[in-house]
Specification:
Blueprint (H helix, E strand, L loop, with lengths): L14 H18 L1 H27 L16
Helix pairs in contact: 1-2
Amino acid sequence: MDPAPHSRFQFRVTGSTGLIVAIVVVAILLIALPAYRLFFLISVLIGIVIAGGLTLWHKFHPLKEEDIENKRPLGL
């Protein structure tokens, strides 16, 4: 049975094809919409700042053995 019986078009992409489609869509938006360029730049800068902050935090505050409660969550 069709999971979405009311939709006319269905487009599924997975794996590396999905990544390529996402990159192409972002590239088209960056070229076509000037306001999107500013939004994209701000988003990338925020992401870089957060990633850098988390990297520094984990570099100077590494996890200790006693910080981890459930060391074997699957019981293996």
